[in-house]
Amino acid sequence: MLNEREIESCYLGQFIPVHYHHNMLMDQNRMHAFKCAIDHVVFPGAKVLELGGGTGVLSFFAAQKADKVYCVEFNPDLVQEARRFLAQNARGDRVEVIHADAFDYLPPEPVDVVICEMIHVGMLREKQVDVIEAFKQRYFERFGGPLPMFIPEAVLMAVQPLQKDYNFEGYVAPIIQFEETTVFQSGTVQLGQPVIYSVLDFTTAVDPMIGFDGQLLIEQAGELNALRFITKNVLSVVQERGSTIDWLNHYMCLPLAQPLRVEEGDIVQLSFRYRAGGSIPSLQASIRAEVVHSAACLPQVAFA
């Protein structure tokens, strides 16, 4: 019998199917960004821990410089995949793949770098925040400070008002959509600029409750019927160049249950609140949007 946490993990994405991890290997933006960040942060002779190793590719990147990499994965199918792939790659023998729960695991020695890629748009579904915060507490209790470096170092999240075309060959269906960040989205009108609603810095304590109560400026008239959620992962800060190595998740567009007619110059009061690692419906249920300033001065309220 599965316990409560295991049941929640199955539902929220901790047991992502193996073929989905294979697809992540083909995501060139993700792969290149993590490879660059790991190469920048990991130094020769380092000890590295990866929490949620998947196919083992990020541990492989780390092993090109590190002396030892502990790669922790809870899904037994992926444990087998990672071991199989690493055996075929140079320096794969520096990676120890461990079948364990990232919520509980501690390495047998202090480490210099921790890699954790349990990242969903908006920090939903997957348990990135909970896993890292639990790790920090265990690590301090066992080894004291300082904490290792984290990849990613931080996450920035923004929300943007949209008008989306939900007509599919005559069939109207307001659905959740995930969009590639580099592809033009036909049928999508950006009604305003993105507004940052949360910044998570993993070098400090992270509050698992994420929320926003702010305003969006409408720059183009239309029907506000969706919100685009944008998640930018700061994988590493390159201080010597004054730059960062970043990775953008696919955009997530959530439909509003009751669209709002908006005009250029309108101000929309928007609020929502959810827990990191929670479900997408939990975010949707909390969304409130209201036009608080318009030429018509007729407030509208949308619930999603």
Q: What oligomerization state is this entry in?
A: single chain
CATH superfamily of the largest domain: Hnrnp arginine n-methyltransferase1
Order of helices and strands: HHHEHEHEEHEEEEEEEEEEEEHEE
Say what the CATH topology of the largest domain is: Hnrnp arginine n-methyltransferase1
Tell me the span between the first and last alpha carbons: 35 Å
CATH architect. name of the largest domain:
Distorted Sandwich
Main beta-sheet strand count, sense and barrel state: 7 strands, antiparallel
Low-confidence stretches: 9-13
Give the structural class: alpha+beta
Average residue-wise pLDDT: 91
The number of helical segments is 7
Q: What would CATH call the class of the largest domain?
A: Mainly Beta
Gross geometry: elongated
Strand content: 35-45%
User: Nearest-angstrom radius of gyration?
Assistant: 21 Å
Extended strand count: 18
What is the count of structural domains? 2
Give the fraction of residues assigned to helices.
10-25%
Protein name: Methyltransferase domain-containing protein
Domain Methyltransferase: 48-132
Keywords: Methyltransferase, Transferase
GO molecular function, one term: methyltransferase activity
Describe the protein.
By secondary structure, the chain is an alpha+beta fold. The protein has two domains: 4-117, Vaccinia Virus protein VP39 (Rossmann fold); 154-303, Hnrnp arginine n-methyltransferase1 (Distorted Sandwich). The chain is built from seven helices and 18 strands. It has helices spanning 4-12, 18-25, 28-41, 57-63, 76-86, 128-143, 280-286; strands spanning 47-51, 68-73, 95-99, 113-116, 149-151, 154-164, 167-168, 171-172, 177-179, 188-190, 195-201, 209-217, 222-238, 243-248, 251-262, 267-275, 288-293, 301-303. The radius of gyration is 21 Å and the shape is elongated.
